Structure formats: structure tokens, C-alpha cells
UniProtKB/TrEMBL annotation:
One of its GO terms (molecular function) is ATP binding. Keywords: Hydrolase. The lineage of its organism: Eukaryota, Viridiplantae, Streptophyta, Embryophyta, Tracheophyta. InterPro entries: At3g28540-like_C, ATPase_AAA_core, Mitochondrial_chaperone_BCS1, P-loop_NTPase. Residues 25-83 form the ATPase AAA-type core domain. Its EC number is 3.6.1.3. This is Adenosinetriphosphatase. The keyword Hydrolase applies.
């Protein structure tokens, strides 16, 4: 996760005068923190030496906070938004991981459908549950428990 692990600033203006842009820094906690300039040079170096033979994956929860120089074409040519799991996505996961369709367990799928729109859950959480067991019914019940827990948490947060 580029914004968290590298401690990148929001914008270049935020760091002017604070960090020597050419030197790598330590964050004070013993963790090594690379400068923005160092990261940009690293990425440019990868592309110049390897051309079209590299795929670099960078993740962030806050694309809007990243330095525009990092996002420019040539450094990041494709941007993919990964949303929370939706019912169509859930059906694909169920078919791929459990080899089932919603007509095989209609009541459980209906319950998942009623919960999935109200809870923010990522596909990886659900896929992890699906990997634990090949028994579709048990797995669907575990997923429903996960979604209900998320719904309870959401309601508690809302009610404060």
C-alpha cells in the first residue's frame, strides 16, 4: 500500500523544506522511509531498463492524496477501482470457489443478497471463507454470519 508503507506526503508542497527530496529518510521509529524523488526514480528506472516486460501493482486507499507526478501516464497507465463486494460479484465467487449457482441454495443466496447491500465487505474476506471449506451450505452460513456481524457493527457505529 503505497500511501501507508512509504509514508508518502499528500502533495509535493506538503514536504517542501521538510525533507531533502534526494535522500532517503528514516521515520524515527527505525523504519526506512523512501523519498518521493527516490520512488519516482526507482519506477522510471524499472520502466527504462525493462520496457513492456514489467507489471507494477501499487495499491492505495487514498488516490486523491498521492502526488500527481506518481499518477502520470507512463508511471501508472491503468487505474482499477476495487469496490466492496456486490451480489453479482458474490455469484462469481460462489461459482468459482464453491462450484455452485444461486439456484442450488436459493434461501441462503436470498439472505446473502439482503445483507450484502447493507454491509461493506471486500471480496477477499468472502473468498477467504470460501477457501476454508468446500461444503457450500456451511460456507454460505459462515458468510451470512460475517455479513450479520458487519451489519451489527454498522448499526452500532450509526447509533454511536
Amino acid at each position: 500500500d503505497i500511501d501507508c508503507s512509504l509514508g508518502l506526503p499528500r502533495r509535493r508542497e506538503d514536504i517542501e523544506g521538510c525533507i531533502d527530496d534526494n535522500d532517503d529518510q528514516h521515520d524515527g521509529g527505525g523504519k526506512h522511509q523512501i523519498s518521493l524523488s527516490g520512488l519516482l526514480n526507482f519506477l522510471d528506472g524499472l520502466w527504462s531498463c525493462c520496457g513492456d516486460e514489467r507489471i507494477i501493482i501499487i495499491t492505495t486507499n487514498h488516490k486523491d492524496k498521492l502526488e500527481p507526478a506518481l499518477l502520470r501516464p507512463g508511471r501508472m497507465d491503468m487505474h482499477i477501482h476495487m469496490s466492496y463486494l456486490t451480489m453479482p460479484g458474490f455469484r462469481v465467487l460462489a461459482a468459482n470457489y464453491l462450484d455452485i449457482a444461486n439456484d442450488e441454495h436459493p434461501l441462503l443466496f436470498k439472505e446473502v443478497e439482503s445483507l450484502i447491500g447493507t454491509v461493506n465487505v471486500i471480496a477477499a474476506e468472502v473468498a477467504e471463507l470460501m477457501l476454508r471449506s468446500k461444503d457450500a451450505e456451511t460456507t454460505l452460513q459462515e458468510i451470512i454470519k460475517l455479513l450479520k456481524k458487519g451489519e451489527i457493527r454498522r448499526n452500532e457505529d450509526k447509533n454511536g
